[in-house]
Amino acid sequence: MTQEAISITKATTKKEKPASDQLVFGRTFTDHMFILDYEEEKGWFDPRIVPYQPISLDPATMVLHYGQTVFEGMKAYLTDQGDVNLFRPEKNMERLNRSNERMCIPSIDEEFALEAIKQLVKVDKDWIPSAPGTSLYIRPFIISTQPYLGVAPSKRYKFMVILSPVGAYYKEGINPIKIAVENEFVRAVKGGTGEAKTAGNYASSLKAQKTVAEKGYAQVLWLDGLEKKYVEEVGSMNVFFKIDGEIVTPELNGSILEGVTRNSVLQLLKYWNIPVSQRKISIEEVYQAYKAGKLEEAFGSGTAAVISPIGQLAWKDETVTINNGKTGEIAKRLYDTLTGIQYGVKEDPFNWISKLD
Amino acid sequence: MTQEAISITKATTKKEKPASDQLVFGRTFTDHMFILDYEEEKGWFDPRIVPYQPISLDPATMVLHYGQTVFEGMKAYLTDQGDVNLFRPEKNMERLNRSNERMCIPSIDEEFALEAIKQLVKVDKDWIPSAPGTSLYIRPFIISTQPYLGVAPSKRYKFMVILSPVGAYYKEGINPIKIAVENEFVRAVKGGTGEAKTAGNYASSLKAQKTVAEKGYAQVLWLDGLEKKYVEEVGSMNVFFKIDGEIVTPELNGSILEGVTRNSVLQLLKYWNIPVSQRKISIEEVYQAYKAGKLEEAFGSGTAAVISPIGQLAWKDETVTINNGKTGEIAKRLYDTLTGIQYGVKEDPFNWISKLD
């Protein structure tokens, strides 16, 4: 594993930064990026921060044909004191290596990768937007770079990190979204790659997402691939239901992505002594709870939106409105607490924040 | 859809061609490639044959993160008369568009794409190897090229074609391979992307493939993702069993790739009046047939190996040897007929061959 010092080549010209209210997720990138190469004989080598620029790939590069690639998503938050906060970044690095293992990509030194991310954010610190709810999205990713058309793990890779200033996910606080339960397409199945943060899971979700978007739904709620019975995820978020006072979320089963926000929500709920369980939950049970007047809240959790209340759920021909289409009490409390911790305005009881020096 | 003429820029220096007996699948590429661009506002535009060269991609290019990409695989064969034969290329173009549909990629004009492939092969005609069993592998593929981290269909794409001279898959005729039945990992499930020729299916297969390779098996036999009971595919080939005089292959079910060679095998068997059925077949049934002395042959079919006899099958703790580990009569006849048609030495009763002018 590399212990080389990270070389830094500064950009000679700086790009213009977009206004805080003009930020669109994932469209604008900062002045620099991080690259680390891998070759089978050498391991990971040549860590460097360089000006943000296109990369040159042979048309036979494996990632373009066989999708051997993994990624992560995290954010840097600017506090009122001018500090830069990362939220549980070590969890993302752990998950990156779990994804690597599933996708036959060599593991990466988690501490070194995190150090590289911190140095990169420091170099582009003036890109972190300061308006409420804005942040700097961090995208670490690994691509297989061997030019070879055989179906086999690549012998070469690039680990890269790029940064994108992002706006508040919701313009005014948090707003409930409309979700359609997906009955035809499947995101993942046990034994597949659902647990890994890898390209194919996202490519396979596009068709379902496009179909429901045309009907006015924001996201898809995925059911299990075996029986299309049990709830798995919402879009690219984990999902929670409050039923008769208890918060229920699908247990990790090999096809659900283990979200860092999901894990944080579970810890907060326990800390608050709110009953919570991770278990199989069928969409039938959710609908029955609704009919019995016991479906009190539903929400998704993820890095992008933090907490996303579900105001309406459509399954087959039946549409139900949850909590009168309003943000629930628990969802609001989780959102306020998580964002409060992230922006350094609330106590951080679990030491989730890593500050940049 | 573009009707533009294809511009041709010839390479000023030519690469050295590898010797016919040194050809390794997918490692060497010819002097030229084909590119066609897509932008939402313009459709497909600027078809061009240019010197084989790296492409420049923004690090945020969608294909690197979300794997929205499809590909095809086909071959050009040089006959003793100096003709260049393509084998049912229109089937590959049809499948490319079926894959596009599943992956939310705009469809491509099949005739135009085929014309582009033919022109490219013509430009690099002297790269088609002439030794027995060798050919020029053709890899058409489409990648999503918008630099954007939102999970949505890309608004820009590149359709590209690259060529690679390939050796005989088997050095001396066809040799039976050892196959392990996969019990843990899943390739695809109905509602997923198994029917599409897309990157994620191949990325997800790497781990299982690597695991069985370490135990000395050439390929994995995939079972269905729901019950791990029914046979789906072998590695990246379709699979056939001869049981008590009848050839059985798994029916297309939404998770199996529809192979062009599979389709050709079915047509040939019907033409020869050999009983054949496409239906669900469990691995249990295959083993029972073996025990009853009725499992007469097993083989895979695909563009790379054409026909690949299965000499040994391992499922859980039970290993069975099929046809004494030798190539079966039907497998041999199919191999000889298909390669005979491809190289122009056998009659082509179905007009499968497209000749380059």
UniProtKB/TrEMBL annotation, chains A, B:
GO biological process, one term: amino acid biosynthetic process
Highest rank taxon of the organism: Bacteria
Pfam families in the cross-refs: Aminotran_4 (PF01063)
Catalytic activity: L-valine + 2-oxoglutarate = 3-methyl-2-oxobutanoate + L-glutamate; L-leucine + 2-oxoglutarate = 4-methyl-2-oxopentanoate + L-glutamate; L-isoleucine + 2-oxoglutarate = (S)-3-methyl-2-oxopentanoate + L-glutamate
Enzyme Commission numbers on file: 2.6.1.42
UniProt similarity note: Belongs to the class-IV pyridoxal-phosphate-dependent aminotransferase family.
Descriptive protein name: Branched-chain-amino-acid aminotransferase
Source species of the chain: Paraliobacillus quinghaiensis
